[in-house]
Structure formats: C-alpha cells, structure tokens
Design goal:
By secondary structure, the protein is of the alpha+beta class. The protein is 31% helix and 38% strand. It has one domain: Cation efflux protein, cytoplasmic domain (Alpha-Beta Plaits), CATH 3.30.70.1350. The strands form two sheets. Strands 3, 4, 5 and 6 form a four-stranded mixed β-sheet that branches. Strands 1-2 form a two-stranded antiparallel sheet. Strand 4 and strand 5 form a beta hairpin.
Length: 118
C-alpha cells in the first residue's frame, strides 16, 4: 500500500514502509514505550516486540482524501502513566509525519497491547 497525496505540481506516492519507519521511530523514542507490537495480537497469540524493519506490522494507515489516520500498537513498561505516554505519542507522531513527510494526519490512535513488568 502507498499513500497518494495530491499537490499543485502532481501526485506524490509514499510507500507504507517509509511511513512506518518515521512513525515507528517517533513512537519508540518516547519514555515508557517498550516497543511496537503486532496489530494481529489475537492471531499471532503472543506479544513480540517489533524491530525496525517490521514496524509496518504494528501500524494501520487509512486514507481519506489528503488526510491520513494512523493506528499504532504498543507495549508499555510497568509503572508509567499510560495516558501521558499515549498523548506524547500522538503529538510526536503528528509532528514528525507532518514535518518529515509533508502530509497532514487526521488523528493518531494508540492501542496499548500490554504492560511489561521487569
């Protein structure tokens, strides 16, 4: 899948893996995030922290015109405030995608799939 953006000069197509790299780096740089996990937790039947090359498994993109909506699936560490982590992820992802890729995000949903106890 690729995201299609219309500009005054023509069409821009950005591959999902490029978008997933930007989003994944934005998510995992936040305090309290252990890592990204698969969006198909029920099917996969176990929590596996995704590496850099697999960030696309933990991200769902939906396009509506020139607006993109993002769903990210994460694992947080025990003892952190989940609401603060989620708000920071939303702000960081929105800022980095708009600054680095040049298109607007409609919303960023954060799905906490589990809590890791050390």
């Amino acid at each position: 899948m690729a995201v299609q953006i219309s500009t005054k000069d023509g069409q821009v197509s950005i591959n999902l893996n490029a978008i997933a790299t930007v989003i994944g780096a934005s998510v995992t740089d936040n305090y309290g995030v252990v890592g990204m996990v698969s969006k198909n937790l029920i099917r996969d039947n176990f929590i596996e922290v995704l590496k850099n090359e697999n960030y696309a498994k933990g991200i769902v993109l939906k396009q509506n015109g020139n607006l993109i909506s993002v769903d990210v699936y994460i694992l947080v560490s025990y003892g952190t405030k989940i609401s603060v982590i989620c708000r920071n992820i939303q702000e960081t992802v929105k800022y980095n995608v708009e600054r680095l890729l040049g298109f607007s995000l409609d919303y960023v949903n954060v799905h906490v799939q589990g809590v890791k106890v050390d």
